[in-house]
Fold this sequence. Notes:
Blueprint: E1 4-7, H1 11-23, E2 27-33, H2 40-44, E3 47-52, H3 63-73, E4 77-79, H4 89-97, E5 101-102, H5 107-114, H6 116-125, H7 141-151, E6 155-163, E7 166-171, H8 174-192, E8 197-201, E9 207-215, E10 221-233, E11 236-242, H9 249-266, E12 270-279, E13 282-289, H10 296-303, H11 307-315, E14 332-339, E15 351-352, E16 356-357, E17 364-367, E18 375-376, E19 383-391, H12 394-407, E20 409-410, H13 417-425, H14 427-430, H15 438-449
Parallel strand pairs: 1-2, 1-4, 2-3, 4-5
Antiparallel strand pairs: 6-7, 6-8, 9-10, 9-12, 10-11, 11-14, 12-13, 14-19, 15-18, 16-20, 17-19
Helix pairs in contact: 4-5, 7-8, 12-13
Amino acid sequence: xxxKVLIANRGEIALRIHRACREMGIKTVAVHSTxxxxxxxxxxxxxxxxxxxxxxxxxxxxxxxIISAALMTGADAIHPxxxxxxxxxxxxxxxxxxxxxxxxxxxxxxxxxxxxxxAKKAAKESGLxxxxxxxxxxxxxxxxxxxGEKIGYPVIVKAAAGGGGKGMKVARNAQEMQEAFxxxxxxxxxxxxxxxxxxxxxxxxxxxxEVQILADNYGNVVHLGxxxxxxQRNHQKVLEETPSPALNVAQRRQIGExxxxxxxxxxxxxxxxxxxxxxxxxxxxxxxxTRVQVEHPITEMVTGIDIVREQIRVASGCPLGYGQDAIHFxxxxxxxxxxxxxxxxxxxxxxxxxxxxxPGGLNVRVDSGMYWGYKVPACYDSMVAKLxxxxxxxxxxxxxxxxxLEEFVIEGxxxxxxxxxxxxxxxxxxxxxxxxxWLENFLKEQSKSGL
Length: 451
């Protein structure tokens, strides 16, 4: 097992990793920008190293600075968390080249799944269902128009190196295709320095279903169930739940086994998440995230498995020690992402936190690095907390979540707590009748009615 792990991240995930390490008897090194000098994980870590000024490109994306901090403190391994360098194959290679362990999959696997064209090809060869579309790079608008005619409109043009909704444009006819193709390529080039795009059939009202995978270095692979991440705004997840209210027992078992078997064939190791679009009873591979997910806590709540701990164990060379039959699912869980944003305009609201009171009680968990008097910086993601609630049934979770949101007090900044209160009170959400477009339509109706 590792003796010391450097945490190459910030905020709640850095604190989450620190806690897992501490419970495993592993010392931690926190790296931080000048803006995060007072962060909670920095205060709690055994050692802390400032790696640069506030802009992420000069600190949390500064590979050389992070490697230097790890070497200087004698770290055995580096945990990248999510975002930043977590899916950067070049960084993973640098870590290994300097005699340390990257807590995640091998660089080749990160590179394979990081390119959506190669990922789709690998997924298809591994037995995952894929959406009809181009086999690879679509180089010209003429080729794009040909694909539109072949698979039928509407279609979506996607950046191969994309993420977060960038480099994605929908075309509903040939006329729209010409503009969509040009816009997607330009946005891809500006956002990812890679203008490769591909084309897929556009699903009208799908749900976003993902399956959590856990695999060791000895061919043992298990799945930890699915999560429904359909509540999104601008392609960014807002609320997640497990199990999905859209699936029955047979569908749940089917997609879990398909995902598990595919990762076994691919030789995957570490934690990972396979994302699908689900429509009319069919699943379609979307992408794979080769890292721990923001929403991993709801899976931990229903399985009782510490995903971050298992990720660290696997990276250190330990076998899982159990198979799929040992995974048991208990109840239901929902996670609300609490952002420092105006709940109506979604304008970021950084600032100093006044009163900070988190909800408690049975099966209520809050993952956050915030505290009374902390200054939320303006230069990073606006998420300040994750509220996770678990219960025996979905209805009991909704009642508990309603109470927990009422109890959550954050003063000094605006947050999206009021938005979550509106969402979970809506009859359609209560019935589980939503898709990836539901939240944006809900927000439009709220705006029209002045609520």
